[in-house]
Structures are given as C-alpha cells and as structure tokens.
Amino acid sequence: MKDRVFIGWSGSNKVAILVKKILEERNNYVCYIGGNADNNSHFASVGDTVLQQIKTCNQAIIIFQNRADGSVSNNLFFELGYVLSSYGTKKVHCVKRAAENVILPSDFDNSFVEPIVDDGSDQAFAEGIVEYFKGRQKMSINENKMMLINNRYRIHDMIIAHYSESGSKCSDYELAQYILFYMQAAHMFEDIPKVHEELFKFKQAHNFEFSSELALAVGIALNFFELVENIKVDPKTCDAYVDPEVYWRFYNACKLNSSQVEKDDVGIFNEWADMFINNHSNFGAMLLANNSSLDKSLRENAYQKTVELGLKTLESIEALERVAPCRENHDSEGFLSLIRAYAYRNLFVSEKFLGRIEAEDWLKKSLYEREKLKNNFMSGTIDTKLYSTFCMEYYLALVNYYDFTTEEINSFELYMRKKDINDFLTNLNNDMGRNAFITQIEAWCKKVG
Length: 449
Hints:
The chain is of the alpha/beta class. The chain contains 18 helices and 7 strands.
C-alpha cells in the first residue's frame, strides 16, 4: 500500500485529525496520529504506542503548535528525533502556522520548520500542510544515474515494496523516476522480457492506485519494451529495423505519452519524461528508416524525422543539465553522456543516408562520448556487462569513423587500434553475447587485414 504517515502534534490534535482526513480521503495515504490521545480507533489502532506507530510508518508530518502554557510539548521533540533517525530528513516534514509565535531551537526555526500561511482556521492550516507535504514528495533522485542503473536490483526492491504491507520506500513521484531508469537498465542488461512482465504485472495489480507520473512512467517503459521486442536484424547489412505496423503503434503511444507530461516547476520528473520520450522516438524513427523493404522516399522521410528527433533529444538533455540535481550528481558524465552518444549516432546514420556533410561531425561527437564513457566507467567500477557494452559501442563508433572519414589516418594508429579491437573481441565472454554490432566490428577487422 502507499506510504504510511505518522502525524506528530503539540497543543491540540484537531489539525492533525484534519490532515489525516485529507490525506486518506483525497490522496490515498494511511495516517497514524501520534499518541492516539483520544483512544479512538478512527485515529489509530487502540493500544498503539507512539513508538509502534512510528515503526509502522515511513514518513512523518510534525505539527508545531503551542500548548495552553505557550510552549511546545517536549514529547514532540522526542518524536521528532525518533522519526529523523528512522526515516531521514527527506521523509520528515515539519510545519507551523506562519502567524503563530512558536519558540523552537535555533537550528530548527526558519530553516527546518516550514511556516504555513493560512486564514487562521484549522481547515486552512490543514490544507496548507497537505499542499506542503505533497510538494515535498516531488523529490529528485539524489545519486548518479549510471551507478543507479548499475545497481538496478535496488529499484526492483522499491517496486516490490511500494504497495506491500511493509510500506513504500519512496513516494510515487520518486518511483516514477526510478521506473524510467529501471527501463533503461533492462535495455542495457538485455533482460527486457523479464522486466516487461514484471512491470506489466505491477500495472495490472496497482494501476488504479498510480499517480499521474507513475502511470506515465510505466506507460513509457511498456511502450519502449514492445518496440525493442519487435526489432529485427537485416542479415545483409546487420542493421536493426522494425516493420511499419510496429512503428505505427509505437509512434501513437509516444504521442499520447508526450501529451501527458505535465509541466512542473517543483520536481524534474517532467524533464526526465520528455528526454526519454524524445530519445525513444528518435530511436524508433531510425529503426523504421533502416527498413530496406520501404520505398526510398519513405526511408528518406523517416531519416529526416530521425534528425529532427535527434536534435530534440539533445535539447532535452541540455534542459536536464541545467537543473541542480543533475549537476550535483554529475549525470552529464554518465547517463546523459550515454543518451547524447545515442542521439549523435542516430544523427550520423541519418545524415549519412541523406548524403549530408554533417554526418562526419556527428560521428566524431559520438566517438568522443563513447570514449569518455569507456574511460570514466572502467572495468571494476561497474558491472562487467555494462563495461563490455561501453567498449563495444566505442569500438563500433571507431570502426565507423575509420570507414567513413576522409581524413588521412596514420598507419601506426590504425595498426594499434586494430590490435585493441582484436584484443577486445578475443576477450569477449558471457557478459557480451554475439550481436549485430559485434558482427560489424569483426567485419571491419577482416576487411583491413
């Protein structure tokens, strides 16, 4: 089930009762009012102690109000310390009336406790507390996204726990972001069928409980999985492609998903959703364009669409790089670098087919990003499969560059590069199965002798 919220209070529990009512009736939370002062099972299970209540919950709202003697209850500070140690600061939400002179320790006042502006009524105060609480749910994922993908089992645990009796480990808003990275991890670790089934069952069981962001994230993932599971490989060119019917379903789903992204100045789920939708749309258009059975004019149109969507993807990446959470977590040197490399490669393939001189510039940019990823995430720092994939994609970009460039290549450089590539191919293990990219790299090595 959704998060359980412990509501601590001082002075009177009237506001706490109203907050509980709003959160449970309108927002699908389960709440426990600290201490159960009225011994009423409507507020909490009869006989519960405060510590039992806190252990049952995973978030807390602490309402600071003066008692009749003009001071805050000492018990509230005890409860505050306990929930902080249990849940962490992100899951503890302290409030007071903006107009009430509540005496607090200096470390709390004006920094830790949010003043809620209201009209003086308990109802308005409670409504303000709920709005503040809901805004605090829009947390960004505070870690490097590539390392999160590397440890994808943690996201799996969050999904399992989210509607369980043990209670969720994050808000719906946070889980929506985690779902997007879980989708990417499934793609990179090549276990899409398993994750596809997992997320489909998750949706079947809990779709009616999803927030709009969580519903959208799951929709984006399922749509992407269906596309990838219908990819074919041309035996002559080794190019991946999809049939028009597959692309048409995917295109319409992307269009619907894009219309459901809500602009939001508080959280950054919308920026992540935009980026993933644009990146997937770019990939899908290129897969259609790669279909050699299509009329040349249709393929040209599809490649032109790939160019437009590639540029749009780069704009989405730039938008994410401007927000503080991505800067603080160095996502530009990890996950966003990977997505940028994808976009650059798709731009290269498209511009090459269209006969444009910009193709080589995009190829060089893709090669640059691939080399950074290979060097930044060295063997031993991430899962060996991810590292092997980074190496494979780097060497693929490298052989594409040598095949395509008009620049003169030093013979010694070519010799050493070929040696590096052959060493990579020789050391391939179970972490990297045979695929079209490996075939292309091997074909280049045979061609250059």
